[in-house]
TrEMBL record:
InterPro entries: ADP-Glc_PPase, ADP_Glu_pyroP_CS, GlgC_bac, GlmU/GlgC-like_hexapep, NTP_transferase_dom, Nucleotide-diphossugar_trans, Trimer_LpxA-like_sf. It is an enzyme of class 2 (transferase). The keyword Lyase does not apply. Residues 291-358 form the Glucose-1-phosphate adenylyltransferase/Bifunctional protein GlmU-like C-terminal hexapeptide domain. The lineage of its organism: Bacteria, Bacillati, Bacillota, Bacilli, Bacillales. Residues 8-262 form the Nucleotidyl transferase domain. CDD domains: ADP_Glucose_PP, LbH_G1P_AT_C. Involved in the biosynthesis of ADP-glucose, a building block required for the elongation reactions to produce glycogen. Catalyzes the reaction between ATP and alpha-D-glucose 1-phosphate (G1P) to produce pyrophosphate and ADP-Glc. Alpha-D-glucose 1-phosphate binds at residues 100, 165, 181-182, 192. This is Glucose-1-phosphate adenylyltransferase. It comes from Mesobacillus maritimus.
Length: 379
């Protein structure tokens, strides 16, 4: 096969336990977002807009919803001949069941797929982040620096820095001088976004060097990056200045949805020439009753609104009954909220029925009590 310049590998296999009920029956990248999207739409749209049209999606936990949603990638124009989307689940071989045990281990187990495409570079991205990025800018910086790996980075609030891999870089050259994965006391708030471009020849050599040490190659942040620093490889940072949100917790998921209601923060309103594509639900327009109202909100298709909505994100095919009030909340698809319900600062999981006359003012860091006897999950 003709050598490709760059191959994209999208990591979509994490269980996402910190999203609690949202990922009980689906992979984190498949979770609905923003009224009409799925989280993975942002990564796939970045690939399409960047012209990165050969994408391997590494799945593991609850992959079926994700695979059914993406199908052949037609909605993102990633179904072209000799390119397109390939799903790469863990597989069995003669000597073991090769479950993915970390980001680097997942890539290492798919060396045969990568070598088939024979790329010069490998772009590694995550399927659970909200952002718009032209990956060609990252590639240009990587080439200019003759780097072995380039890591996309951004500054995060100091109080959140312990959630990420953080690093020190040379202020002029942006060469990475030090890196620490999820430190208890961060020395820096310049955080890895989990987006990498590797020279494939370099990464392949490292994999081969440690292929018999199973516990060594589990993770890029914990294992590969520190090893490359100690071994004097060329590691550089690409500073990203746009909107970026890792939606790994219920709190950050709620915050990212609320950001869509701010013109200043909403990534969908910026770079309109860089659209976010999604699968069409083919639902009718939303209906608003004469007594309904909404302010500062996003409302998906196919809804029936009889109550009041204030600063909330309402997904498609949601019914909000007469007298009900929704404030600062995220309501996921196919939910029925009956009459005279009050919901504030909450995330309501999809396929849920909430009985009349209930009041909820939950902390957004906790998913609503779906096991309440008055709240029913619809099958």
């Amino acid at each position: 096969m003709k050598k490709k310049e760059i191959l994209t590998l999208l990591l979509a296999g994490g269980r996402g336990t910190r999203l609690k009920k949202l990922t009980e029956k689906m992979a984190k990248p498949a979770v609905p977002f923003g009224g009409k999207y799925r989280i993975i739409d942002f990564a796939l749209s970045n690939c399409r807009n960047s012209g990165m049209n050969t994408v391997g999606i590494l799945t593991q936990y609850q992959p079926h919803t994700l695979q059914n949603y993406i199908s052949n990638g037609e909605n993102w124009e990633l179904n072209r001949r000799d390119s397109g989307i390939t799903f790469l689940p863990p597989f069995q071989c003669d000597d073991m069941d090769r479950w993915y045990e970390g980001t680097a281990h997942a890539i290492a187990q798919n060396r045969q797929y990568i070598q088939y495409h024979n790329p010069e570079f490998v772009l590694v991205i995550s399927g659970d982040q909200i952002y718009k990025m032209d990956y060609n800018k990252l590639l240009d910086i990587h080439k200019r620096n003759a780097a072995d790996v380039t890591i996309s980075v951004t500054y995060v609030p100091w109080e959140e820095a312990s959630r990420y891999g953080v690093m020190n870089v040379d202020s002029k050259t942006k060469r990475i001088l030090g890196f620490e994965e999820k430190p208890q006391i961060p020395h820096s708030n310049l955080a890895s976004m989990g987006i990498y471009i590797f020279n494939w020849r370099t990464l392949k050599t490292i994999f081969e060097q440690f292929q018999d040490e199973r516990d060594y190659l589990n993770d890029f942040g914990k294992d590969i990056i520190p090893f490359m620093l100690k071994s004097n490889y060329r590691l550089f940072a690409y500073e990203f200045n746009g909107y970026w949100k890792d939606v790994g917790t219920v709190e950050s998921y709620w915050e990212a949805n609320m950001d869509l209601l701010s013109r200043k923060k909403n990534p969908l309103l910026h770079q309109k020439d860089w659209p976010i594509f999604t699968a069409d639900c083919s639902l009718p327009p939303t209906y608003f009753d004469a007594n309904s109202s909404f302010t500062e909100s996003l409302i998906g298709e196919g809804c029936e609104i009889y109550g009041k909505i204030q600063k909330s994100v309402i997904s498609y095919n949601v019914t909000i009954g007469k007298g009900s009030v929704i404030k600062n909340s995220v309501i996921l698809p196919n939910t029925i909220i009956k009459e005279n319900v009050e919901i504030e600062n909450s995330v309501i999981n999809g396929n849920t029925v909430i009985d009349s006359n209930l009041k909820f003012n939950e902390s957004f860091s906790n998913i609503l009590r779906i096991n309440d006897r008055r709240i029913l999950n619809r099958q």
